[in-house]
Input
Amino acid sequence: MLVCFVVLFSSCSQSIDKSAVKHEIFQREKAFEKMALELGIAQAFYFFADTNAVILRENDSLIKGNENIRNYYESKNLSNATVNWSPDFIEVSDCGTLAYTYGKYIWKTRNESGEAIEIKGVFHTVWKKQKDGSWKYVWD
Output
């Protein structure tokens, strides 16, 4: 897998402004986070997902495709859950069509007895530039 990223991130011949693309990716991450807070986690993870996106969740389960990702989150009881995150690192491929981020997240919810639960962790997201110029994640 690492070899694939190295080849993909270094095989482009056109020059891009990586700083500008990193800013785009940061803004996309923050828009994703904002939608999750305002419209719900399922809607945000669906909206920002590439059609063929894959997410890795509990028990090393891979959920493949944006429709299955939405169904996964809709099947969970997340009505009282929130998630906040911010990328600590962003890298962009030489041709500006792929990028990856990682950083810290905080997942907050309540258990059956109403006690607050807070889970902290590290996320890793791979972004792919779409034909329309927008960015969608392909891995989370």
